[in-house]
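Query form — protein DUF2269 family protein

QUESTION: What is the three-dimensional structure of this chain?
INPUT:
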Amino acid sequence: MSFYPILVFVHVTSAITLSAGNLLSLFGLFALRRAQRVEQVRAILGLLALSEPISAIAVVLTPVAGIAMTVMSWGWRNGWINVALGSFVLLLSMGVITGTRRGAIARLVKEMPDGPLPQSVEQRIHDPLLGTAVYMIVALLLGIVFLMTTKPVLEGALIAIVVSVVLGAAASLPLWRGRTGEEAGSPKRSSSDV
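ANSWER: The structure tokens for DUF2269 family protein are given below.
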């Protein structure tokens, strides 16, 4: 048995794990935006923190196995591989934004007494950049999976990722709507907050 099938297994398994972690992040965002109390926010962030070590391993194994398969078999001449790798770097930058913003919320509520959410926490939870980063991660993952499964030429790969980015940005537009009027006060809750 060659080493290549093992790399495929590691790559696919870690990509599934990464996708599951990011879906949990998306559902966590929905739950945070519905939270009414400090203790609810702490519980949601605690659940999300449990998935972070597994997601971190997947973040490393997915590209390492992919690069190893590229070197062993595919080669760098395939445009979709380069686009997927570049998209993965963009995905990681969105992950840094998400992790930083959620970490700030966690530090804020850590020592707070149980009770209704203060305005300062509400504003951080409803930060449109946090929501945009989460939506972009999900959209980019879908785009990268599309590249992995269809293996298009360079132009097709670029179009697929551009479509993914546009979809992620479009999904996040409601998060930014009316933001200037809300910055002075508590953000409005609406159906677009979910």
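ADDITIONAL NOTE: Residues 4-193 form one domain.
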